[in-house]
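Morning run. Coffee first, then this:
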Amino acid sequence: MPMPISQLRRFWVLDPIGAAGTVAHAGRVTPLKLRQRPTLRARLRTAWSAAELDEALANGADPLASDELALRAVQLVNPAKRAELARSLELVVEQVAGEGPSPRPGPTILRREPIARNRPELLTLARRLRTEGLQCLPGLAMADRLIRYGDSPLYMALGPLQLRRRIDDILAALEPGWDGVPSDMPHEDD
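And here it is:
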């Protein structure tokens, strides 16, 4: 049974995981439901269905609706996970720009033109993922889907505009008050 929102307020800063879909984690404090280490069964189910859980969280599902959603939400708001996502984006940009390691043989094929044309936006997204403070759960789930799953525009974009729209959607979901032009976004002439 989910905890009432009034009880969640002492565990989550600002907005409890809910109406606005925002999560601000206050240090090591977690909801009562997650204070104990999740069972092996819950961890395996979460790992097995990560794609579906990310999709549900990206669409605004209540993370406290199930143990798996709650565990996936905690994984996504973890600063180490956000740093991993940001580093993955930076590596993709470096590889396409020819600055990174040579591509390894394997099934992953990046869409070079869309990535090259959206370089500043991808780096802005990486910087946003690294920032401290309020992190919106749907945006984190969308960023994870962009990087980890082969049906994302990083791998399947028909053109640069498709990737640009996805990045804009993620940035907007990470920061509901976002006006479309981050102040720290690099310009083409930089």
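The chain has two domains: 5-77, 79-174. Good start to the day.
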